[in-house]
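Hello forum,

I keep getting stuck at the same step: I have a sequence, I want structure tokens, and every attempt I make locally crashes halfway through. Rather than fight my setup again tonight, could one of you with a working pipeline run this one for me? It's a single chain of 230 residues.
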Amino acid sequence: MRRAEKKARTRELIRTVAQRRFAESGFDAVTVADIARECDVAVQTVFNHFATKEELFFDGRAEWVDSAAEAVRDRAPGVAPLTALREHLMTTVTWYLDALHDPEIREGLVTLEASPALCAYERELHHESVRRLGEALAEVTESDTAPVVSRMTSSLIAVVWMGAMRALLIEQRGMLMECGSAELHATVGRLAARVLEQFEENLDLHPAAEVTPLAAAIVTGWPAEVRRAG
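Reply #2:
Ran it on my machine without issues. Output:
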């Protein structure tokens, strides 16, 4: 028990020191050796707790990687998977926009935005969240007679829904932090609600053989009228 407690304390110390140093000096300017020296531990000890420096930065900041999939799996009885997903993502949008006013969270985001390595790692986490959501959605339709179609549909829905969230929040993060007006945040919230409601209405986990015009437009990137004209 004492060993486990000591290990937990060491991990927390490393994370606290590292995230403070990242905020003070920038992620790329701080080395693992710098962190180990201040914590009075060996460099290997840092790596025993965190596989990469990027993982160390995101520790405690990446719950969202699992949260969409968990919302689908842990939904209340009688709630449709896409309804649970929409409600979860809208809660996430509201939380995220409010969090941009928190000095500590803003500090972390400024550090993230300034580091190409962290932005690349964040994209990897996004892809992982899409994969996990796709798996969760596939689980709720695995009893279907067409499991391949079910899995493909689940993957498509995960890509589209999570891609929309990234486009609305992450890719506009700099502007959202800089402007920060209540009016802008309210506009983003309304747009997110409208987009997700349309997704829930038009993207079906149990697709028919014929693809609907909206679904086809999402796959190809072009509305049906334009495709026919071409």
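Residues 64-229 form one domain. If your local run keeps crashing, start a new thread with the error log.
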